[in-house]
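Hi P.,

Sorry for the delay on this. The queue was packed all week, but I finally got your sequence through. Input first:
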Amino acid sequence: MASRALLARGSNNAPLRICRQCLLLRHAARASQSRSIATRVLQKRAAAEKAWNEKAQLIKYGKAPHPWDILKERGYVKDIAGTDQQIAELMRTKRIGAYVGIDPTAPSLHVGHLVPLMALYWMYVHGYRAHAVIGGATAKIGDPTDRLQSREPMTRATVATNITKTHYQLKRLWANVDNQARRFGYEKEWAWERALFNNSMWYNNTPFIEVVQRLFKGLRLGPLLSRETVKRRMTEGDGMSLDEFVYPLLQAWDWWHMFSSPKQIQMQIGGSDQYGNIISGIEAIKYMRNHEPNPNRRKSDDLFNTPVGFTVPLLTDSSGAKFGKSAGNAVWLDQFMTSTFDLYAYFMRRPDADVENLLKLFTFLPLERIKEIMEEQNRDSSKRPAQHALAFEVVALVHGVAEATATQAQHRGLYSRREDAPQELRIVPNELHAKDVNMASAFRVDIQLPESCVMHNSIASILYAAGLAPSKTEANRLTKQQGAYIGGAPGQPSASNKGMSYGDLTFTPVKTWFPEDTKNFLIDGKLLILRRGKHFIRVVEMVSDEEWEASGKTYPGEPYKGEMRQLRQALKDAAGGRDLGFKASELQAILSEQSTIDFHKRLEEDKSGEKRQLTFLERRRLGRKTNAQHKTPIDRYLANKPAKEAAARKLLQARRRGEIPEISGD
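Then the structure:
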């Protein structure tokens, strides 16, 4: 090989030759070089490093609390992979990266996922790099830990649905964590870092032979066969397939990929059943670290380059049932699967003996405040102040403070209970604002549409039918301005788009295309993923026209359903019997504003339970310095049309007061 690597020239004009392995090493060395960084960024990094070192000294001499001690005090640490002293020193001296992995084997997260996530969130608010990883690739196999039977295989459509819903749930959780941090006095610093990954990102671009060569070569069968999960499956269960057998190795490769990247994610946080997988991951990372073929990427064997991890405790209720289960069903974080009322009620039912521990695990409340709450609880447990505090903080974390306030008011008896089904935001408002992340939680992700709508209409009509635009006109504008997205292969034209890779979640801007091109974006021939803005997502399941007709459902723009006729008649009644000749665009504007009434009505109910005056803002006359985004649909389409505007506002005021039912095609 050495002789082949020498540069050779047979003559003055002979081409320059170099062996392939040397070429790859040279290319890797170049790729590992950092790109140019602005001076200001370098200055910020230096300032952040200086502040971290100063904080480390304060911790060393007991003048500041140690984040590792905080995690232990609050009860997050069960089993440690590494040593206690090792992790404490590592967290004191280095801004390490940590991650929690979640396989999307269900269409929603449940409250059991919050325990390892809360440990990660606490590290985040103390300045560590925090990452959540969705197992888009590993979910195709499923973690066999503590299972005696193999999991039922999931279809591509199911995997895509679960990945999409989990992804956007985690995004909303991160946004709410930032809000919670501000509530409790944690001022966000420049160096705070959080990210959301899907392991399909690297598995879809990693040759299988590389995983075998780098990872499998350093592991022995003896330790793998001696794992308790393997022995139980072989003796008590239905045996173990090879894909389940190597699952811990794939999880180890996830960790290695992030550990060896510039982010250097050094810590894994897992559920109580993940200790064996974490240990396997640490052994695999140490082997690959010590046998890195590229000298430019090889890390030294010291504390700063040692992987560590810990597991959180398994929570059970007083009956011994796994925490997060209710009558055999998980308590979901999707409000359309477990309503906010029922989520609040679940935590209200926690016994007094458990509630203090749960306050430490599920909230950002300081320990001093928890102590005060428990003293109040001990004085008079009939009012259940501890349960109310716990339930409020969990709902605030999952669904936002506004929803938690409204739900707490219901449970305190100030309002009658709402229906179990949450109020749904059916159509995305035209103007999207920074608070959209909370509004998006009222926007159902998974819906159905008939085949005739999906396969025989323009993409603008599909966006309108899915509620991602208040009118076809607005939907056409979105397609022209590339303001909407569809799940598919980025950069490929619609006529030849190959769709998303299996287990991945990628989007490409929606453009005008022929109806027959829509089939290229279907997953399993029946699933379409659409998005508007950052937070509003629709997973559209295409059903047969017969099934749709039997369901009795309708969608915006559905032919012959009479929605427009109903609205025209209601407006005629509001105008004293006069037909004001509303145009289609004006009617769609009124429907768009109607769709947000129920959602905003809840937000406008204050904590005392008294309803504020509910009136429409006066129409804003836009001057040169007025932000056009403040225009409502009524402003936009009925400006300078006083008779039409008066009728529309009268109708919507009556709807807001609940005097008339919602105008729909049902």
